[in-house]
## 1
Amino acid sequence: MSSARSTMSTTLVIIPTYDEAENVRPIVTRTLAATDDSVHVLVVDDNSPDGTGDIADAIARETDRVHVVHRTVKDGLGGAYLAGFAWGLEHGYDKLVEMDADGSHHPEYLPWMIELADTNDLVLGSRWIAGGEVENWPWYRELLSRGGNLYTRLALGIAVRDATGGFRVFTSRAFERIDLHGVASKGYCFQVDLCWRALEAGLRVVETPITFTEREFGVSKMSGNIVRESLTLVTKWGIDRRLREARSLVKDHRRLPSVRANAHAVADHAA
């Protein structure tokens, strides 16, 4: 693990990697070019056998804006992000960004998303609000994503259109109200998990449109197990919410705080 340099930086872009040797340098280079010196990058590598971690180390030696964490275990996307959040909070960053290594998330959106985090607790780069889109996806991938997000909205009673997206900005103060120690999901349901926790905690959540581009190199980590985990956990959370709502009505004669009121959408600043 690289040590953090003395810095005035306020934003840390966390990029988990596993076998991303072809992608890691291009995405880090684009991220640095799209942002100013107040933004640093943390590559969290899960002991990639293709040498991704070595490439990340080489980049970190070239600039003090890049740091690397090497993990010896591979326990899913959620585990990698939790390690990145812990590192970023320990080193005093004010905003923490989730971004994929494969180029599907365009770092050119970062300045606007980081600006939105000045007045919101969680900023979601959204494919499924007006202005958002996907590129190079087969029809079944889009159907799966749209359907999964529709089910999530109905099961949890939320207004967020893209709760499964992985391009987002958290403020450090948001983590003061989100219990990261209780996060059980490790796969892509991790994204729904954190969004749901933010909404239940009453945090201000905003969606802004992005274009999502399917990876050019490497293999997608999506699998049937990931889909099954998501369906199981979202269903469980929805049932649990309704049971707590019923108990609150019977015992206290009041509803739980809304999980819809603090979520809204904004246009891209360039639109």
## 2
Amino acid sequence: MSDLALISTLVFVVVTMLVSVWQKLGLEKDVAVGTIRSAVQLLLVGYVLQFVFHTDNPWFMVLIVGVMISVASWNAGQRAKGVAGIRLRIAVAITTTEAITMTMLLGFGIIQPTPQYIIPISGITIGSAMIVSGLLLNQMKRELESSRGEIEALLALGATLRQAIQQSLKRSIKSSMIPTIDGMKTVGLVQLPGMMTGMIVAGANPVEAVRYQILIMFVLSSSAAITGMLLGLISYKLWFTRDGRLRPGG
């Protein structure tokens, strides 16, 4: 893509801002900031990846994955700001998901142990885990608000913390995985995913692009399941006080 063609894509941003002004949505500033940040961040990442790919130093690769996990954990933790220790649990869940996913991909020889494969797929895996974590925390807050009476009654009857929160936890984990599952059901019929589309636009064989996209979809489903279940298991106690009462406000 030429520089002129890339600059021309700003017309889509202008359309978005005009719609916001027309409907008085007040999103013009957010759209402008988002546009600048995304462009700068992606360009910086592009140059960093170009450097890493050429140096082929595994420590640079580990550093990039570590930064991805840190940013993802911080962002997902915004969904439960008042819950102490939640970001550490998110980081543990995402790191474990990444480790399991990469171990299986490399162990079975599905991908090559090079930065060109590991970093992009790690980004997809960690990004999916971040979204699942945020959805789970949002749903947990809603569940605890609507089921507070039920949970407190169970605690009063002698139930353990796990027993009292179990149903809310299950519903939250299930809810966090729904977008991933729905995406798997409609991929290729409703949408052509970004990786597949990018490969086709770049001139790759469509069948080969589809094969890689199938890999990504299966990785996404696995990472969503692992992250959701693990985060739920290691974080449910954070929703209670030290003396075993449900925290105010969920």
## 3
Amino acid sequence: MSNSESRDEWTTGTRQAASHAVVAEALRQRIALGGFGPGDRLPTERELSAAFGVGRNTVRQAVRELADEGLVTTTLGRNGGTRVAPARPGGDGSRAAITATIRASLRDYMEYRLAIEPYAARLAAERGAGSARRELVAMLATDVADLGEYHRCDTAFHLGIATAGGNEVLAEAVTRARAEMFVGGNALWLGSDWGRVYPAERDFGSAFREEHEAIALAVLSGDGDAAEARMRDHLHDSHRQFLALLDQFAAQD
């Protein structure tokens, strides 16, 4: 086995071993913030797997960890599933601290993404293959029915830009930043009131096109300055959206 193969195997194993703990912590925070209240049924394994971008076995391990802590209970049968256990005394006292921690973590990830993704967009515009740049524009026509599909399309778009630039190190940095940010963050947005971000008449397909069109067209035209600027604007807007969702939890105190 080559050194690179050994390193890849070790890295993959480490991520897989840690991922269930990350998912468990994200769900733990979501429960603590009141997003899933006592007696509420958690999304299915399939739904959680799609939302987090991890395997169903990873979700199963995470839920088992929460069950061992007494935070959830699982029953079998047609009406079974995993539900949040009754609230324990003093459980809401940590909500403000948890929200503050998530807000700080979100700031750190968004600052990092602002440091790397605008430049990735510039590279995609200036030296990306024509087929890769056209594919980014083609993505804008994708039907996006719900939040889960939005997340998958959004990820495909951002990673498509990072890959098109031809810098493997930068593409890996973008991939890891998104994976680490969204595995933890997606539990927070499940069941959130997205009306704070999108008007009721605006569907996720329209939102995806409107938020990414300027970037895609700048990349297609080969305008590195515009691609970099539009990506920076998009990330600032995304940060504001996430903060608006976090404000929902702060308002519950």
